[in-house]
Amino acid sequence: MLFEGGRGSRRPVSARPRAPRSGIKVRVAVEQDAAAEVFLLYRRGDGDLVIGASVKKDVLEALRSRLGHSAAAYEIAAVPVLRSA
Fold first, then answer.
1. Distance (Å, rounded) from C-alpha 26 to C-alpha 13?
2. In terms of pTM, does the model score above 0.90?
3. How many domains does the chain have?
4. Residues forming a β-bridge with 62
5. pLDDT band at 37 (very low <50, low <70, confident <90, very high)
6. Ramachandran angles phi, psi of 77, nearest 5°
7. Is 12 a domain residue?
8. Is 7's pLDDT higher than 80?
């Protein structure tokens, strides 16, 4: 996953099989059948935190619902998977 932005306002912008040479990077495990996009569950703030990634958004919605009162602090974003030609 490649993130862009400053501390507390970073957003995921793309996913690649290999890490890019620059930018803020996070490695996450995703199901084998990831095709055009993956969904990422994360929290922005002073301690940006990635909870998980999945090709199925409902998996992450269920995970977020188990976070209780802090669930509102977490976001789910669709991130395109970029493959080299």
1. 11
2. no
3. 1
4. none
5. confident
6. -125, 140
7. yes
8. no
- CA–CA distance, 57 with 59 (Å, rounded to integer): 5
Calpha distance 85→68 (Å, rounded): 42
pLDDT computed for residue 61 by the predictor: 93
pLDDT digits (tens, 9 = 90+) for 49-71: 788 888 889 999 999 999 889 88
Q: Are 12 and 48 in contact (CB under 8 A)?
A: no
Domain extent at residue 75: 2-80
Residue 85 lies in a domain: no
Residue 11 β-bridge partners: 4
Angstrom distance (rounded) from CA 7 to CA 67: 23
